[in-house]
Design brief:
alpha/beta; Rossmann fold; 4-stranded parallel beta sheet; 3-stranded parallel beta sheet; 11 helices; 32% helix; 17% strand; globular
Length: 343
């Protein structure tokens, strides 16, 4: 499992899709990688790999806790939930993306539902500087999601209207590669809320007015500016996202071939961001956690602060080496020097 928390300014994975190369490498090393939309979503860019399973953050936490199983599927029927606050050319662009993904990629999409009223997304920053946000009308989101589920959607892509230019200085810093994604925290709130309520794969795409061209753009920010919407990667990711299978006494057993939390062989996370629910649950269960020091963020919740043991990695390339060692049954201690004698 690869976890890169959203909205905390990670140097890798803190932008749209710049964690994808690391995910591809870890998928090749492991043969089966579970990760979340923050890692995979590259706006107009995406990467489809049957070894990579696209799981929203709430469901990912529940999977590690053995409360959900993941059932790989060939395809999902992706319902699209549009915020009533999107209008004009921006709404038309999103509808064109839907039709393009149907005709060009052959995705199963529909129905498309618009909320009864604007969701009223607001953005803010937490004490650490990480991004956060809230919904003025969460009931409208849930009602539209219920409508999509009742109409046969098996996964849901949410597009909500976000405030344009959230703090001119913060946006400029982000585009120059030295800021935090101001949208990410609110996106997580939306997808967590809907995924938990419906128990369906969900992911979010913000609707924003296009920005003026910047000739000095940081390469990691470029994916977000080459298209007019963030929706293509979300539709592709959800099109083969695994089904969520609740595990509880009295409920049917998951189908053969479903992925189960106890099967996790390793969790890879930034060395300073080990305080998330999935990582803590893995540590409690004795699952090896590979902490990547080469992906700093605003946080400093590291192994020393938690008093836990991890496998340290300087980069995701080194993390892939640890994954290969674990997969082949090689004792990690045998790869270190000095090699201490047994007591």
């Amino acid at each position: 499992m690869l976890v890169i928390p959203t909205g905390i300014g990670c140097q890798i994975g803190g932008y749209a899709g710049d964690g994808l190369p690391s995910a591809r490498l870890l998928a090749a090393a492991s043969g089966c990688l579970i990760t979340h939309p923050n890692v995979m979503n590259g706006a107009a860019l995406y990467w489809s790999d049957p070894r990579i399973h696209y799981v929203e953050g709430w469901a990912l936490d529940r999977f590690v806790a053995a409360e959900l199983a993941l059932e790989p599927v060939r395809r999902q029927r992706v319902g699209v939930l549009l915020d009533a606050g999107i209008d004009g050319d921006l709404l038309l662009r999103h509808r064109q993306v839907i039709e393009a993904c149907r005709s060009t990629l052959g995705l199963t999409i529909g129905p498309v539902v618009t909320t009864e009223m604007s969701l009223e997304v607001s953005l803010s920053l937490g004490p650490s500087g990480s991004s956060w946000g809230s919904l003025g009308r969460p009931g409208a989101l849930l009602a539209a999601g219920e409508q999509l589920k009742e109409a046969g959607a098996t996964a849901i892509a949410v597009v909500s209207r976000f405030p344009d230019d959230p703090g001119r200085g913060a946006l400029a810093a982000y585009r120059q590669g030295i800021g935090v994604d101001a949208l990410a925290g609110a996106e997580a709130v939306i997808s967590h809320l809907l995924g938990r309520h419906l128990a369906l794969p969900c992911a979010h795409a913000p609707a924003l007015a296009p920005l003026p061209l910047d000739p000095d753009l940081d390469p990691r920010a470029a994916a977000e500016e080459i298209g007019t919407t963030f929706l293509p990667c979300v539709l592709v990711g959800l099109s083969r996202a695994p089904n969520l299978w609740p595990l509880a006494p009295g409920r049917p057993a998951p189908p053969a071939g479903a992925l189960l939390g106890p099967q996790i062989g390793a969790v890879v996370a930034p060395a300073g961001a080990l305080g998330g629910e999935a990582v803590l649950e893995a540590l409690d269960r004795g699952v090896p956690v590979i902490a990547v020091a080469g992906n700093p963020s605003l946080l400093a919740v590291n192994a020393e602060a938690l008093g836990v043991k991890v496998l340290p990695a300087a980069s995701y390339a080194e993390a892939a080496g640890w994954v290969l060692a674990l997969r082949e049954g090689i004792e990690p201690e045998a790869l270190r020097r000095p090699l201490r004698p047994l007591p």
